[in-house]
Amino acid sequence: MSMRTNYCGLTTEALLGQTVSLCGWVHRRRDHGGVIFIDLRDREGLVQVVCDPDRAEVFKNAETVRNEFCLRITGIVRNRPDGTINANLKSGKVEVLCHELEILNASVTPPFQLDDENLSETTRLTHRVLDLRRPQMQNNLRLRYKVSMEVRKFLDANGFIDIETPMLTKSTPEGARDYLVPSRVNAGNFFALPQSPQLFKQLLMVANFDRYYQITKCFRDEDLRADRQPEFTQIDCETSFMSEQEIRDMFEGMIRGVFKNTLNIDLPNPFPVMDFAEAMGLYGSDKPDMRVKLKFTDLTDVMKDVDFKVFSNAANMVNGRVVGMLVPGGGSMPRSEIDAYDQFVRIYGAKGLAYIKVNDKAAGRDGLQAPIVKNLHDAALAEIIARTGANDGDLIFFGADKAKIVNDAIGALRVKIGHSEFGKANGLFEDVWKPLWVIDFPMFEHDEENDRWTATHHPFTAPKDGHEDLMETDPGKCIAKAYDMVLNGWELGGGSVRIHRADVQSKVFRALKINDEEAQLKFGFLLDALQYGAPPHGGLAFGLDRIVTMMTGAESIRDVIAFPKTQRAQCLLTQAPSEVDEKQLKELHIRLRAAEPKVV
Amino acid sequence: MSMRTNYCGLTTEALLGQTVSLCGWVHRRRDHGGVIFIDLRDREGLVQVVCDPDRAEVFKNAETVRNEFCLRITGIVRNRPDGTINANLKSGKVEVLCHELEILNASVTPPFQLDDENLSETTRLTHRVLDLRRPQMQNNLRLRYKVSMEVRKFLDANGFIDIETPMLTKSTPEGARDYLVPSRVNAGNFFALPQSPQLFKQLLMVANFDRYYQITKCFRDEDLRADRQPEFTQIDCETSFMSEQEIRDMFEGMIRGVFKNTLNIDLPNPFPVMDFAEAMGLYGSDKPDMRVKLKFTDLTDVMKDVDFKVFSNAANMVNGRVVGMLVPGGGSMPRSEIDAYDQFVRIYGAKGLAYIKVNDKAAGRDGLQAPIVKNLHDAALAEIIARTGANDGDLIFFGADKAKIVNDAIGALRVKIGHSEFGKANGLFEDVWKPLWVIDFPMFEHDEENDRWTATHHPFTAPKDGHEDLMETDPGKCIAKAYDMVLNGWELGGGSVRIHRADVQSKVFRALKINDEEAQLKFGFLLDALQYGAPPHGGLAFGLDRIVTMMTGAESIRDVIAFPKTQRAQCLLTQAPSEVDEKQLKELHIRLRAAEPKVV
């Protein structure tokens, strides 16, 4: 005989009159009119169990149960009395009259109430097992599962096969952020945990697997920001013989299917596509939050000869930029809010936040209100109004500095205003899902500090057709076949068409000033593989943690991971990482550096 | 326009007359009667491409291609001429008359022919990318994918959800076999890679996830035997509120479904069930190969008073055992074969291999042929014949020693004879799939060296109902709710019902002489969780690598893993593990022990 016949949360009127056995936890016990009511909880939800005093043994047992006791009950499903129906529960029209009650396991008093909304994260992570019993965490992890299963079904239907790549692999020579694993058998040697399966998936394409995917852990040993974990999960995909457009269409379809089949959300079809230059130009970001109805107006050329030095210096600087950002209706923004934004942009390196209120544009200079107006000549003011399309009652914020600072600061300001009460009240924010492809990334970024070019994406990304020679003649102009999928200001995933020809790969290495020996040492096995008829191929990787965080509206990716690490990379539940025995270190041929005598 | 419209291997008569674009590799090029024939290969197989000299450009290109060049061709599907149909290919009735031929990528000459059957494993693993192009490896990894996807579909349909558990976790205090990962952020501390998600999956049951699974990497740093890898993949499952029988039924159904839906093999329904004691008694193994029609006959009690010291000593020894193994028709076995078996059992610690040939059992002692006969009294000989059921023309092998040696040696001999030419010719081997549940394992094994009890499975395994007190009074008699699924002599998976009550867990720790402090240190977070109404739960784990190895008939699990390690735990493709920079070690607060000055 089965321990249970039904789930608590799925006990509905369809079972009326039937005897059921249910297992679950005491969510709440109420004694009312001499009868004991137990809300019994399992993963599907709650059901009300009624223990009458005329069943003496049941009642006696019921009197001893406390919250979080684990029970098995058997009873008959019946209608709840009129007026006691709970419309919030699937089981809310019925209750179970208990005939047998077995205490499967008692519980000590939990350190907190499961429905307490104000738990600190430390408490939650320390008592993670109880925290995971809370409906929100149950829902988050079940949605995570549904997302990954939808991904698998989609990819399976499209001929992708899941192939496992190694977890114990090779450290890359610069090795920053690699987690290392000392080898016992091979003294003095180390494995590295993969930062991504990038090279292996390319090898699988060369090996004729044609369409690969994997939902796999990746590792990065970096200081942990709010939305990072030392181990994170990627949906990693690669395909041969498909163009950039075909790849994007394929994976756009995947994400659309996931949203539809899990949350019944219809994402736009097709997703809008924007090139990198436009994204940076209009939003100062390669992952713009398109829900926000604000954009940049470039004014660099206009400001070269104004008296206001902040603007003219930036406009004449190498890599300088001056932008305006029109805030429709912003004229009513209180001074205190403007001051707060002034402080806010300084976080991103801006030295302040200039603005102009447009009171009466027909009045020319006199209709514009701001300290900077007097230092801008008429032509500049007219151009500002014309280009931004400002109307009376609007406000224009300005950024003027190195382009990176302007983009970061005014880009962040754009999002902040959009999400503010002001933004929402003034129609500057549209609360919908706004996906976007950002494409045509530059192949290379200039590393000013070391005066050299680095790969924007990674050195295996293919240049656009016809851009191969630019790698040598004008690297900054060379565009890559790289693409990111962005949703509401978050990068969901990104990828590229890869280089499949050894001669093109050599050009990239030359542009990056990687000589043959270094290339061989770092990527020898990939370069070797490219020689044997490597096929045209490309792919991308999605961050599963982040996708699910967005979909659940969770505050942190830690809320969509069963056993996450803290921002100090610690597990509060198991106390990992921890000290280990000297014997273990000895077997691994290492010792702690702390034991090193200090030279004074 | 798509780079390709169809797969080479799926180009069949259904496409006759159509123009197709195919991408793939030159498997073979033949010039015949002024026409060039290219067998083009993709992951679905081969198709014949015909390049006529009257299409000059195509022909010119075709002349330059060599094996493993990567091509894109466009052409018209037409019937092959009569007499040239290849019944071994899906595409064997058709060929593609090539109109366009683009060389997507050239190939240098491969270091070996892909269809060479005699490659060394070193060659194969060094050039793994080419090795993976071989049909056998393509099939192995695709079957592996199908198996894992069938598992997911089955578990999904049964309400199991995939939940990821940490890869960076805590080292267990004894820590043998743990791979360690030094923490950069937490100096002097180490993560361990999981040997299994055992404790986490139990925590998930306490956390009300009810039915969990994961197909996940596990790690064990041990000397590598033929069928082990440092990282291996487990199908890890756990469920609450199910009995042992229900759990076994569930997962038996899963494996039956996997075999049916991938290889169209019908495994028996239900699987036979045998308890541990019977398995050891009859086959000397807890994973008997049931294809072999040989079994042990226990003779320990019969041999206590015989003159033959090898038998009587073993029969009177603590933990001694004497068995006979009847080999029907074995009387015809040549002396050389018997001698070879005598050598074989010595590998397992046996000191020799006694036997009796039954020439004429009606003749009593005189009808039995063997040196040992003269040292066995009449009653013993009669009992040997009676118990084994020997007939004229049969042979009986004997094992007499400590039980462990007898079981290992005669158990291995049983399998060896069964699989031998002799065994197959004499009906001692049935070439079918023979699954089996082995259940009722002992809770504890006695560690003679340290005179203490150790857990046979792990210390969280529940004792059989009613056996709780035996843990203290007679641990050797205490039976566990543990079970292994065995197929053709291999353990596919195993598991148990777990302890969900803290008081029972304490009894186990007492039996294992683990004191409270030690228990808290080792398993504190599990013990803590058990206090909060832990539900009855249990589960099991299957070895995916091994299942797929069996299903493919591969010689090694390395043939079902894309990028395996050698038996020296090295990756010949990437050269992992490798040396790392001093800078990296410094960041991780460790240094190499080799650098330690030796004290002379």
Summarize this structure as a short list of keywords or feature phrases:
homodimer; 600 residues; alpha+beta; OB fold (Dihydrolipoamide Acetyltransferase, E2P); BirA Bifunctional Protein, domain 2; Gyrase A, domain 2; eight-stranded mixed β-sheet; five-stranded mixed β-barrel; 17 helices; 23 strands; 29% helix; aa-tRNA-synth_II/BPL/LPL (chains A, B); ATP binding (chains A, B); EC 6.1.1.23 (chains A, B); aspartate-tRNA ligase activity (chains A, B)
Mean pLDDT of chain A: 94
Instruction: Name the CATH superfamily classification of the largest domain in chain A.
Output: Bira Bifunctional Protein, Domain 2
Q: Counting H and I runs of at least 4 residues, what is the number of helices of chain A? A: 17
**Helix proportion of residues of chain A, in percent?**
25-40%
- What is the architecture of the largest domain in chain A at the second tier of CATH? 2-Layer Sandwich
Q: Based on the structure, what is the oligomeric state of the protein chains?
A: homodimer
Uncertain ranges of chain A: none
Taken as a percent bin, the fraction of beta residues of chain A is 15-25%
Q: What is the largest interface, and how many residues per chain? A: A-B, 122 and 123 residues
Count of distinct structural domains of chain A? 3
CATH structural class of the largest domain in chain A: Alpha Beta
Keywords (chains A, B): Aminoacyl-tRNA synthetase, ATP-binding, Cytoplasm, Ligase, Nucleotide-binding, Protein biosynthesis
Family (chains A, B): Belongs to the class-II aminoacyl-tRNA synthetase family. Type 1 subfamily.
Binding site for L-aspartate (chains A, B): 174, 220, 457, 498
Binding site for ATP (chains A, B): 220-222, 229, 491, 543-546
